[in-house]
Amino acid sequence: MAAAANHSAPSGAANTAPVTIGVLALQGDYQAHARAFSTLGAHTLLVRNAAELTAVDGLVIPGGESTTMLKFLEQNGFFDALAKFVFTTPCFATCAGAILLAREVKHPAQRSLGAFDATVERNAYGRQIDSTILTLPTELPGGPLEMVFIRSPRIVRVGEKGQVLARRDGFPTLVRQGHLLVATFHPELTSDTRVQQLFLSIVRDNKSH
Ligand code: GLN
To answer: At what angle do helices 194-208 and 30-39 cross, to 10 degrees?
Structure first.
């Protein structure tokens, strides 16, 4: 979008085009996401209101506490602006972000943005194993990926446009649905940046079309 066009470009190639990655910064793990994308050479912008959405090519919706983020979103028309944005602009949603982006939320039900055609159960792994680190197979180039789960939700249904890239106990943990990338774990907490690189390629493709 408009703001990114002003950045100095390292080259004209589509796969290295400069992009601005917004990180929703209302609550939660947004700084770690911003650091990861900065390391990969993207310009990053912390997004705290609807106007700032117009300056980004893609948006990270981080982990944290989805109910708290909802409370902030429901101020000043931000929820409605974001609900439009996520249907057309690349979004990378992790953990609480996955809950916010889903079409249906259970356990308990709560309001959501609806662009990710899936049903997501909050805190589905219970208290005893609510936080764990697992290395699991993925469809990403390079194979298995270390995944940090923190009071993780569980994706119990994915729509037919969802491409499952990894699973835990049979349930999807990483899903691409067109311009959306959703993880129930925290890729920003490990040094492996393959998930972020996939999101950057989604953002660049979207921008060049
Ligand atoms: N359990 C949190 C929620 O329901 C999500 C946890 C996380 O983002 N790490 O919002």
So the answer is: 70
CATH of 2-208, one of 3.40.50.880, 1.10.3720.10, 3.20.20.10, 3.40.1160.10: 3.40.50.880
Q: Quick: pLDDT tens for 92-102.
A: 999 999 999 99
pTM of the model: 0.92
Closest by CA position to 197, among listed 44, 41, 62? 41
pLDDT digits (tens, 9 = 90+) for 140-190: 999 999 999 999 999 999 999 999 999 999 999 999 999 999 999 999 999
**Which structure tokens are listed for 101?**
């982006």
pLDDT tens per residue across span 45-76: 999 999 999 999 999 999 999 999 999 999 98
For ligand 1, whether the C-beta of 65 sits within 6 Å is: yes
Q: Is the CB of 96 under 6 A from ligand 1?
A: yes
Q: Whose CA is nearest to atom 2 of ligand 1?
A: 65
Domain boundaries, the chain: 2-208
* Alpha carbons 185 and 96: distance in angstroms, whole number: 9
Ligand 1 mutation target, pool 60, 151, 155, most atoms within 8 A of CB: 151
